[in-house]
Amino acid sequence: MKVKVISRSTDEFTRERSQDLQRVYHNYDPNLRPQEKAVEYVRALTAAKLEKIFARPFIGALDGHRDGISCMAKNPNYLKGFFSGSMDGDIRLWDIANRRTVCQYSGHQGAVRGLTVSTDGRILVSCGTDCTVKLWNVPVATLTDSDDSTDNSSEPLAVYVWKNSFWAVDHQWEGDLFATAGAQVDIWNHNRSQPINSFQWGTDTVISVRFNPAEPNVLATTASDRSITLYDLRMSSPARKVIMRTKSNSISWNPMEPMNFTAANEDCNCYSYDSRKLDEAKCVHMGHESAVMDIDYSPTGREFVTGSYDRTIRIFQYNGGRSREIYHTKRMQRVFCVKFSCDASYVISGSDDTNLRLWKAKASEQLGVLHPREQRKHAYHEAVKNRYKHLPEIKRIVRHRHLPKPIYKAASLRRTMMEAERRKAERRKAHSAPGSIVTEPVRKRRIIKEVE
Amino acid sequence: MGAKEENGDGGGIRPPIEQEISKELDTNMKKYLRGEGANLEILKDKKLKGQLALREELYGKSAKAAAKVEKWLMPSEGGYLEAEGVEKTWQIKQEAIAREVDILSSRNQYDIVLPELGPYTLDFTSSGRYMAAAGRKGHLAVVDMKNMNLIKEIQVRETVRDVVFLHNELFFAAAQKKYPYIYNRDGTELHCLKEHGAVLKLQFLRNHFLLVSINKFGQLRYQDVTMGEIVGNFRTGLGRTDVMRVNPFNGVVSLGHSGGTVTMWKPTTAAPLIKMLCHQGPVSALAFHPNGHLMATSGKECKIKIWDLRKYEVLQTLPGHAKTLDFSQKGLLAVGTGSFVQILGDFSGSHNYSRYMGNSMVKGYQIGKVSFRPYEDVLGIGHSMGWSSILVPGSGEPNFDSWVANPFETSKQRREKEVRSLLDKLPPETIMLNPSKIGTVREAKKKEKPTKQEREAEMEAAVEAVKGFVWKNKTKGRNKPSKKAKKKQELVAKAKRPFLDQQLKGEQSLSTKKQKLSEEVELPASLQRFARKKPTA
Questions:
Q1: Could you tell me which of A175, A353, B174, B368 has the fewest CB atoms within 10 Å of its CB?
Q2: Where are the domains of chain A?
Q3: A58-360: what fold?
Q4: pLDDT tens string for chain B (537 positions)?
């Protein structure tokens, strides 16, 4: 007879000394865990509630400017340095971590319309309504500098005066050319006082310009004739243009998928395009109640932040139609510019009330260095919440955001109006001969035509 | 040289040992995959399809990792009993087993004789470390089974019919003569649960923290032991019964009645979920397999039936009496009658239970309850002269998971586990027959037309509502009774109108259908042109 019985010796299963860790044994057999789905559901519910408890996205406001902020720039080489320009010509370099002004550049006569930093992070280019482009020196941050609290103003390295006022400026990601937008698109070199090249298509002002992160010679611009134009510096004329129904205020290229860009439009939507195929938008991002003023992609390429005239900031997913997050404050008025920080953790917004505001990109994120156990716990909560986020109770908690009353009312009004339009179009179609009315997909609807 | 060749062949032909291992892992993986994968071919949404395909791949990877852990990282191995030669396993006696086995395990086989204090019932905690024993004459004891330490024993001087541990070894509930009481490990009485009445059987639902009781009048009560609220209170309507068991797979409580029916209950509905006629005589015992698919019932007509709970069909009928039944973690079934315990096992995998072991106790001992000890190859038997424990190789799960149930728990770990299990406490609404339905899509119900009776009932209800209306006493001569009566008639007619309209519509459509049909049937083909046409104006 062969017989064996389960026998566990206590030494093998308990620790020897109190300094040792307790022994943990795993058996992943589902039979040991009855009703595991219900337990997961309860954990998802708790995780959703905890996320709401810890959702405090606003970190602080940086005040100092004396007029509304019109543009911002981030320094690609230095995580903490952000530049902001205001409507009275004041440009400041901020230390985001300490929320102080490091350096102040004054000199512009009118509003500063565009700011950009060169590839090596040493030179700041600014342009404004006073028809000038100014190049400034960016102080290199050393240990001694960060203790100083004196705002030292400096003289511009160079001032280039040109024929008409400028609306935007952007620098190449790799290179030493920068482009300004005004009556036409001008390409400048740091050392020349005149643009080395000029592009024009039509007679309308160009209001924003952005270089492609991967292709140094490709740039996109928006103009007040409701178009988005793509240029290639190696060709002598602009490459392609798509005309929409309303004007786009700003563009941002996706840094991880550089053939895609998203345009922030006046009709409260953002349109993502594939630059190779401009006849149809890749995705329409809806959510804002008023014109979208600025847009910036996160360095992960997975989400972007938009600031709008309706006093809110929304964070969208790169392929999602609805916003993941909405930030608002009673004191924040019209948002004119937003930037995603280079470590994808923070969002900085500049608004009409002369303040820059610092927000967390993930509202309930725990900042600082996390213990690996904490990281795993957060990852588990995310995963279990994502698994059950379609169930009604959890969906209700995860989706819920408090909106200030004017925005809430504006949103429901807009919803009613769009619903009414949709219903009318549906009825028109239903009561006409089949095939005589063709509904265009939303992605095509706002585009008038594409021009070579 | 040979090693290099093997490495080079990684993609192509593998050595036979590796192939065997991968086949074994594949069969084990099925357990961890928990069912079939989703059919993604029917999806038209490309984005969703891509996301779901990624998820399915991740599930496959995690199942593979779990199968590998099971194969290589488990600390203990299960027990077994194999007979050699002509000998059969059920002929092997406990003494023979005790001789062959090591000292620590042979200590698990003993007889505790306590003749004056009545038949004993037992309950084990979920980790199998602690045992609560209750003698009918009022003896309550909590024993630490690792060291055979008696932690506390009290004499309550009342009839005790049942005892059950709550979520910990710190608390246990005893069903005493008039009410159930909850005691601490130190023997202090914490609560007297007056609402339950004279309870015959108690059970505890661990994930939901619900204490279930069935009392002398056949009333089933669910009480939440964390906050003390009575979650459900039902009159079963089928009389007094003391056969009650919780199905650990889905948390459903089932009762066996004296008419041979087995009913299954959940705390949120007053009517039983399932009512099945199992036996021709009263049901005497009930047990559930831990995987939730099998149920064993025994009736007083000397039959033991094994049921499949997915189809509610009998899988096997065995002859024999059974005063008590219990399934072990590995699926062995213990049957106790008189002073004989028989253990049946399913060795072919086809739900065919056959004799595995047997143990005959001293003639005078009347077995009251058998209970397998979790995570050990031990069967606890409570009988009229005390309690005993015998070795049953192969009945317990050899590898425990520290975060589910840890027999070597320290007090710190116990406290942590208590807090975590309270955070994971399931609401009573999650108890359902098929617990994997949570998170799935509910099927769209087809709208049925209300039957004639229902429509009439609705009409009656509407008329009653109108008639029950209280009239305002108007003054200045406007309160004439004739006017009131007329108004009332009008209102009743108005309430009835929608129902009558519906009826008319239905009848019209029926009559037109009938007409069309009848006309087409009556006249032959050549006379069709003389069929009645609609009269022109």
A1: A175
A2: 58-360
A3: Methylamine Dehydrogenase; Chain H (2.130.10)
A4: 434 444 444 456 778 788 888 888 888 888 888 888 888 888 888 888 999 999 999 999 999 999 999 989 998 888 999 988 898 888 999 999 999 998 888 899 999 999 899 899 999 999 999 999 999 999 999 999 998 999 999 999 999 999 999 999 999 999 999 999 999 999 999 999 999 999 999 999 999 999 999 999 999 999 999 999 999 999 999 999 989 999 999 999 999 999 999 999 999 999 999 999 999 999 999 999 998 899 999 999 999 999 999 999 999 999 999 999 999 999 999 999 999 999 999 888 788 898 999 898 888 889 999 999 999 999 999 999 999 999 999 999 999 999 999 999 999 999 999 999 999 999 999 999 999 888 888 888 877 677 777 888 888 888 888 888 777 888 888 888 888 889 888 988 888 888 888 888 888 888 887 777 666 566 788 887 877 766 554
Helix (H) or strand (E) holding B454: helix B452-467
- All residues of chain B having their beta carbon less than 8 Å from the beta carbon of residue A32 are 397, 400-401, 404-405
Q: With contact defined as beta carbons under 8 Å apart, do A68 and A337 qualify? A: no
Q: Are B152 and B185 in contact (CB under 8 A)?
A: yes
Structure token digits, residue B196: 């339950």
* Nearest CB partner across the interface for A1, out of B69, B96, B400: B96
DSSP codes, B23-49: HHHHHHHHHHHTSPPP--TT---HHHH
Q: Which residue of B has its CA nearest to A383?
A: B55
| CA A443 to the chain's CA centroid | 21
The C-alpha atoms of residue B400 and residue A29 are separated, in whole angstroms, by 10
Q: Do A1 and B439 touch (CB under 8 A)?
A: no
Nearest C-alpha neighbor of A82 from the set A47, A48, A55, A121? A121
d(CA B308, CA B297): 11
CA A174 to mean position of chain CA atoms: 21
- ipTM for the predicted complex comes to 0.81
Residues of chain B found within 8 Å of residue A8, distances taken between Cβ atoms: 76, 407
